[in-house]
Amino acid sequence: MNIKITPAPISGGIEAVASKSFAHRALICACLAKGKSQIKINTTSADIEATVSCLRSLGAKIEINGSVYTVTPIDAPRASAAIDCGESGSTLRFLLPVVCALGTKTKINASGRLPERPLSPLKEELIRMGAQISDKFPLDVAGSISAGEFTLRGDVSSQFVTGLLMALVFLGGGKIKLLPPVQSRPYIDITLCVLRTFGADIKEENNIFYINNAPLTGCDFAVEGDWSNAAFPLCMGAKVAGLNPYSTQGDKAIIDVLKKMGAEITETDGCFKADVSSLCGCEVDASDIPDAVPVIAAIAATANGETVISNAERLHLKESDRIKTVCEMLLSLGADIRETADGMVINGKKSLAGGETESFNDHRIAMAAAVAAVKCENAVIIRNAEAVNKSYPEFWNDYNKLGGNASVL
How far apart (Å, rounded) are the C-alpha atoms in residues 336 and 97? Predict the structure, then answer.
């Protein structure tokens, strides 16, 4: 699907979509718990649907009635299963340790760029602790891990830590030692928040997590609004309701970045709005907010002055090489931007020319292009714009609700 955007001012407000980060974790915890759970998720996406499908294949029963997911946990692990993670890195990296804890002989499929994204050192740690995992996709996983001590680098992927935490809680104990530096720490905090809500007993000291024997218990859980996806309408000047101002989500820091760029922020009862009419360049450390880089770059392209985004090396390993694709997308629209070893440098212009660009099959690149289009002089065409389905299927409808002029070619 190709989308044509005729630049138009943005106004009005929308409700935040459900946090993928919380939804993945809550669904998996519910499937490993004792007793039923009801998870309220106000919107879905391809990634959330991938996790639901995989959990059903592993033996959980998940019934969906509107926004309520009633979860009957895995009663007895299946002897064998086949699961398809689609393009969801969270689904794969969370469930690989869980599968190894269940002891289910499992064939794991993945698509898009996901099979190329790293599983080391998680894979080697799981094998060391008793699992058998093949080298190529589809992954053949057999054997089972035991509760014990795991060691991981803290600068590779917080998703590895999340998967191991959930697996060890299910197994009844263990220890995870993280080697500093620890990046994307807020995502680990989300995991701890959800696990503790379901009854887990986890202590932490000096980057070591001690998992005690406390089984997960089914509960009612309402998934909060997603700050990662809310960043896109917020950066266009729209109101976004349903956001938790005290959230553990790292991308809540988009508010701090906008303030640093000179935006005035108003907030009432979880409804946020930013005045983005006069932004200035700034320095952004992306080590804890890598997913926010595409939208920050999009607004920096028309901010006054220079913006330097650093500590974003992990963007090379996302749905696309986001350092490269963010730069290519914005260059094609007329921005002054260049890659650096760990990020990018953007010299803001009053407006961009517009033109034709590619989503690179990356949801955040497609949405960032739509944000940049607001400040373009001419129409913008985004190829393969259906990439938004991965996290925000209603993005184009919401974009038009806010006054945007996006149409399918």
Answer: 43
**Burial (CB count within 10 angstroms: exposed 0-12, middle 13-18, buried 19+), residue 338:** exposed
Map out the domains of the chain with their CATH numbers. 3-16+226-408 (3.65.10.10), 20-211 (3.65.10.10)
Helix/strand/coil for 268: strand
How far is the C-alpha of 409 from the C-alpha of 138, rounded, in Å?
A: 36
Q: CA-to-CA distance for 308 and 378, rounded, in angstroms? A: 26
**Residue 222 burial class via C-beta count within 10 angstroms: exposed 0-12, middle 13-18, buried 19 and up:** middle
Token digits of residue 222: 């309402």
Distance CA 216, CA 309 (A): 40
What is the chain's percent helix, strand, coil content, to nearest 5?
Answer: 35, 25, 35
Using a CB cutoff of 8 Å and minimum separation of 24, what contacts does 233-236 make?
233/10, 233/14, 233/398, 233/402, 234/258, 234/272, 234/273, 234/274, 235/274, 235/276, 235/295, 235/296, 235/298, 235/299, 235/371, 236/10, 236/276, 236/371, 236/374, 236/402, 236/404
323 and 285 in contact (C-beta within 8 Å)?
A: no
Cβ-based burial of 388 (10 A; exposed 0-12, middle 13-18, buried ≥19): buried
Question: Taking the complete model, does pTM exceed 0.90, yes or no?
Answer: yes
Cα separation values, 116 from 61, 111, 301, 319, 358, Å = 31, 9, 30, 10, 21
Neighbour tally for 136: CB within 10 Å: 7
Whose tokens are 């998967």? That residue is: 163
pLDDT digits (tens, 9 = 90+) for 326-385: 999 999 999 999 999 999 999 999 999 999 999 999 999 999 999 999 999 999 999 999
Strand-pair partners of 208: 177, 205
Catalytic residue among 291, 342, 362, 398: 291
Helices vs. strands in the chain: H and E counts, helices first:
12, 24
d(CA 275, CA 185): 29
Say whether 291 is catalytic: yes
- Burial code (b: 16+ CB inside 10 Å, e: under 16) for 156-169 equals bbbbbbbbbbbbbb
Per-residue pLDDT reduced to its tens digit, 3-43: 999 999 999 999 999 999 999 999 999 999 999 999 999 99
